[in-house]
């Protein structure tokens, strides 16, 4: 079996220090690789994505004198103040998925193995450098390279204006290096960075730096602009497509693996993968790199034969890194990611009832008054909390949480493991729960009996589901669910009772029933759902979506299901469940054969659909979608 790293008792030859990058939320929603994540690609020792360059109202990315940070030094330098850096070239071109695949998989990587990827990138850059050998650029490097014993604050990089000479290029394998010299006028993003300090550092490196550390400035002509674009493509490869374990494992079709990672990049960019999950992926990748760096540093401290304690610690770090590597591979596998789940669940332990058997009513309000408790019986045990999270942490099975009007962040709702009731006091629109975008779910119920009453759930960020019933039974009564991600999901074996509720805005179906689930929906309004998730009309899931085999059980009474993209109720069945016709969809209206297919489906399912109002759904009231899928 291929491993994620070499023998932990020997140094990793192809890995060294990382420099943290902050990804712009607008341009980078997936993890940015370490700037020194691959020693052969030392061209990333100090680079940051273009999104890191500060932008201003006029659209420029140059620093003003007021914006340039100052070095806070322990001892003064007699230094002339540097001028501001000019604007670097940033391409305005956006690339589609197909264009990225054609560029990296067909043109750059081709038939190369992972071990040859660096050479392929090197050849790609050299090909363009022939058009222009000298130009001016901003050299970006880690603050630690130039600044020692200085308080630099949260400075992502140190930039210096330099003249670049890439004649001749020093070899074809990365790190490709170019010769640089400090350009006139002396310019930096640090106003009082001493020029002599820069010269000393460059002299130590023979005035040679990795080519990906230099960023051509604007206004140098079309040839230099093209070089800048080629360098951007190389940085994109190491930021988003390369993994530290690639050249440690055998891969028959490396270009195919790169294609999957390009798909991952675009799935995160367009929201196909919910934001919280992509954020967890990013953090896991960062943690993996941190563990790998820790292992490398620990190995370098071992002199001679490792002592028993050092060997144990080394293996511990190695296996921690290996576990994270395995998890990342799981996430990156498109087949597994398609049918989820592609993030780990950490289950909260069920408390059960108190040993005393007492039941407590928890009041959530900033200030408690006598009017709040006047309707409680005299023997009610009451505990007041300032926050919803504090109340839920104090709950045991059988408790009730009464939430008074206000806005609350509902992090603790992501893991409901005890049988409790949570109800709002007053109008449901006055008790608002907001999701935390950094969490996978908004509400996740795992207890045998949970009830939410008289509340408004407002989903911020593309969480996995506004409500997910993983096991047991969840009752929603008189609640408003304002979705931004997916709607209510009822997983296999779980049960949902929903009464007098309103669901709107879900990117997928308003209610999605997995095989073997149970749902009773009475007097609800489900509207304007499945508007964003589907890439084409055939994939629209409508207001309610049922996945068949084994059959879910559904009772619908007096519901109003309207203005959804797709059918009001969609029944999704495998292609081999019924004898196929050429069409993948069978609608509730049409010729006799289509009607027969739908009738057979309804007869086989445990459906009770009475006195409901279905209207203005783009594809009709009830539809049968025949499709092959794999159960998670």
Number of helices: 11
Widest β-sheet, arrangement of strands: 9-8-10-12-15-18-21-24-27-31
Q: Structural class per helix/strand content? A: alpha/beta
Helix content: 10-25%
Give the end-to-end Cα distance, rounded to a whole number of Å: 25 Å
Uncertain segments: 1-67, 335-347, 533-539, 577-591, 628-632
* Number of DSSP E strands: 33
The fraction of residues assigned to DSSP E strands is 15-25%
| Rounded average pLDDT | 76
Major sheet summary line: 10 strands, parallel
Shape: globular
Measured on Cα atoms, how large is the radius of gyration? Answer: 30 Å
Give the secondary structure arrangement, pairings included:
Layout: E1 72-73, H1 97-109, H2 117-129, E2 134-141, H3 143-146, E3 150-151, E4 158-165, E5 177-182, H4 195-204, E6 208-210, E7 214-216, H5 222-241, H6 254-269, H7 275-301, H8 308-332, H9 334-339, E8 360-364, E9 381-385, H10 388-393, E10 400-403, E11 406-409, E12 421-424, E13 431-434, E14 443-445, E15 449-453, E16 456-458, E17 467-469, E18 473-477, E19 480-482, E20 488-490, E21 495-499, E22 502-504, E23 511-513, E24 518-522, E25 525-527, E26 544-547, E27 553-557, E28 560-562, E29 567-573, E30 585-587, H11 592-604, E31 606-610, E32 613-615, E33 620-626
């Amino acid at each position: 079996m291929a491993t994620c790293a070499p023998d932990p008792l020997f140094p990793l030859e192809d890995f060294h220090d990382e420099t943290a990058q902050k990804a712009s939320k607008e341009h980078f929603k997936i993890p940015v690789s370490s700037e020194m994540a691959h020693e052969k690609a030392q061209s990333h020792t100090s680079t940051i994505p273009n999104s890191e360059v500060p932008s201003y109202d006029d659209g420029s990315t140059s620093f003003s004198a007021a914006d340039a940070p100052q070095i806070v030094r322990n001892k003064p330098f007699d230094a002339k103040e540097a001028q501001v850096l000019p604007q670097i070239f940033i391409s305005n071109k956006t690339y589609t998925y197909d264009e990225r695949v054609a560029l990296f998989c067909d043109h750059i990587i081709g038939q190369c193995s992972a071990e040859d990827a660096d050479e392929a990138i090197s050849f790609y850059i050299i090909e363009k450098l022939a058009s222009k050998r000298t130009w001016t650029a901003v050299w970006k490097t880690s603050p630690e390279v130039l600044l020692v014993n200085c308080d630099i604050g949260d400075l992502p990089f140190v930039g210096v204006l330099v003249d670049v000479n890439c004649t001749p290029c020093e070899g074809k394998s990365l790190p490709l290096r170019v010769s640089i010299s400090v350009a006139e006028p002396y310019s930096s993003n640090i106003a009082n960075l001493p020029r002599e300090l820069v010269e000393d550092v460059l002299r130590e490196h023979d005035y040679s730096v990795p080519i990906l550390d230099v960023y051509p400035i604007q206004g140098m002509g079309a040839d230099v602009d093209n070089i800048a674009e080629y360098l951007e493509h190389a940085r994109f490869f190491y930021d988003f497509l390369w993994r530290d374990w690639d050249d440690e494992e055998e891969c028959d079709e490396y270009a195919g693996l790169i294609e999957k990672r390009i798909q991952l990049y675009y799935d995160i960019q367009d929201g196909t993968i919910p934001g919280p999950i992509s954020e967890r992926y990013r953090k896991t990748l960062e943690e993996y790199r941190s563990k790998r760096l820790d292992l490398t540093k620990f190995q370098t401290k071992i002199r001679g034969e490792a002592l028993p304690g050092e060997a144990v610690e080394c293996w511990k770090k190695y296996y921690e890194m290996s576990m994270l590597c395995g998890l990342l591979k799981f996430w990156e596998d498109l087949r597994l990611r398609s049918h989820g789940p592609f993030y780990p669940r950490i289950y909260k332990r069920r408390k059960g009832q108190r040993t005393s058997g007492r039941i407590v009513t928890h009041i959530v309000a900033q200030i408690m008054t006598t009017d709040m408790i006047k309707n409680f019986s005299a023997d009610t045990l009451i505990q007041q909390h300032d926050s919803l999270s504090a109340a839920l942490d104090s709950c045991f099975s059988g408790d009730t949480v009464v939430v008074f009007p206000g806005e609350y962040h509902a992090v603790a709702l992501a893991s409901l493991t005890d049988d409790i009731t949570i109800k709002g006091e007053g109008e449901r629109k006055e008790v608002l729960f907001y999701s935390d975008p950094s969490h996978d779910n908004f509400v996740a119920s795992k207890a045998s009996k949970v009830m939410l009453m008289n509340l408004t759930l407002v989903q911020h960020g593309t969480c996995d589901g506004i409500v997910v019933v993983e096991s047991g039974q969840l009752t929603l009564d008189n609640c408003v669910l304002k979705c931004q991600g997916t709607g209510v999901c009822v997983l296999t074996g779980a049960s949902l009772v929903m009464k007098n509720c309103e669901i709107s805005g879900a990117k997928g179906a308003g209610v999605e029933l997995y095989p073997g689930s149970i749902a009773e929906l009475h007097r609800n309004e489900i509207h304007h759902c499945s508007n964003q998730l589907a890439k084409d009309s055939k994939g629209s899931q409508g207001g309610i979506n049922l996945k068949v085999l084994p059959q879910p059980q559904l009772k619908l009474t007096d519901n109003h299901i309207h203005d959804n993209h797709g059918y009001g109720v969609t029944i999704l069945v495998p292609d081999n469940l019924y004898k196929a016709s050429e069409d993948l969809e069978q609608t509730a209206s049409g010729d006799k054969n289509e009607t027969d297919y739908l009738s057979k489906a309804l007869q086989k399912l445990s459906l009770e659909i009475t006195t409901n109002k279905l209207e203005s759904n783009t594809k009709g009231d009830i539809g049968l979608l025949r499709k092959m899928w794999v159960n998670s």
